[in-house]
Amino acid sequence: MEIIKDPTKMQGVALSLKNQGKTIAIVPTMGFLHDGHLALVDKAKEIADIVITSLFVNPKQFAPNEDFDSYPRDFEHDQALLKAKNVDYLFAPDALDMYPIGFSTSLHISGITEVFEGTTRPTHFDGVALVVLKLLEISQCNFAIFGQKDYQQTLVVKRMIADLNLPVQMVICPIYREPSGLAMSSRNRYLTDEEKEKASIIFLALEAAKKAIAQGERKRKIINSIILSNIKTIPSIKIDYINTARAESLETPDEFFPGEEIVMLVAVYVGRTRLIDNALIKIPTAL
Amino acid sequence: MEIIKDPTKMQGVALSLKNQGKTIAIVPTMGFLHDGHLALVDKAKEIADIVITSLFVNPKQFAPNEDFDSYPRDFEHDQALLKAKNVDYLFAPDALDMYPIGFSTSLHISGITEVFEGTTRPTHFDGVALVVLKLLEISQCNFAIFGQKDYQQTLVVKRMIADLNLPVQMVICPIYREPSGLAMSSRNRYLTDEEKEKASIIFLALEAAKKAIAQGERKRKIINSIILSNIKTIPSIKIDYINTARAESLETPDEFFPGEEIVMLVAVYVGRTRLIDNALIKIPTAL
To answer: What is the ipTM metric for this complex?
Structure first.
């Protein structure tokens, strides 16, 4: 595994690999890797000749009041994990490599960025879109691998790839969970063992709603209330939002149609840590 | 010459040419081609294996009060000119091919877009940057050919290419002029013969200022006043702006340094037609 810091050098390597007919997959990460990230790497290795993992805590996707400075970092450990996975390139630029003095370009995706996570984090997705666009260009990738955990992010990136005609295929991998059901996240590092146990209710709540949907429930507010009432069994969890939406558009009709793909989206605070989770399900066409 | 309307098809063709090891140059145009455009095509043919000319009047770079609807169009004639030049592909999408229903992405380049043309046309350059980004992706080009006529546009595109790590080399060709000195432009079509003759003063004014600079003039306001006093000899011409700036940053110091590359920028109305022109010159290091 070669570690590259300079974007121009990384792109030069990628262009030369492309010229040799190799296919490239990138796994964009902010580091502090867990098994969820490594599952994305496995997927990348399965579909492409060359795997580039990027490790960059992107300042542009954090608001000033957010945890950019305290976001967990452990480069040595991340490096060892990726090396063990036989990743070909670890691309690890500094902020000034990505956003040098004079940098003047920003990106805005309207609509889909303005709801759910976008309500609480209004500049977040534009920052994500910008860094992803740069990473796709630098890596010259054929495939970009993302986790379903950041569900709304996958929609934003998909929208950007389509709108900008990027010749990249996006691959979305299922949420990777702890045995308790807690979705893996670098931010779980902020949780105490007790909080982790409490946080596992999120998955159980989503599962309960899934069961109700499988049994015929189509009313959005009832689905939401099933998730809410389950999470409320742990009174110390503070709800940011719980809602159910059409999976592609994030529209929130009162009732879903048979056959529709929907997504249940949850954001809560466990202690001071904000956690998100989601579940996709298709409304059954017949009972 | 093959005419392609569909972006996905154009990109598929381009990707397959790239896989065959061909280099590609794109000449982005809004059509109503003149010899200036054809000089860009010649340059493209000189440096790349495959030349794609795009012909797209981009609605996103016109403000509602501007001449999008009346912008001159003559597809048949353009097509014949490009065919005669042995262009490989004419990419001519419709607005809905480029911006389908649901399109949500916009781009903003700060700083350089906010002065000169940006004062009069505040949304213009973001619209230009967006369409150029899409055209670069669709064409998978190694080279993007632009004319110096739209000088500030070349700076905006250069900034975007650098900021987004696009693996594209920008090539800027000199301004192509009528025998009178009038810079060629599709908008010259709006001019009467008498207005055309009057408009040739712009070039003469820039030449007069160039001469003064070659003879030692370095004070910005004096350079501007030379251009102004020359243009004022045609009283019916209305000045939008006349200014001189550092060529790369468009900064406007009181006095330029020896050895600096500077640009003189002019925007005027001749009748109801807005014309722009410019000249690059290096401040002499010694007299």
So the answer is: 0.96
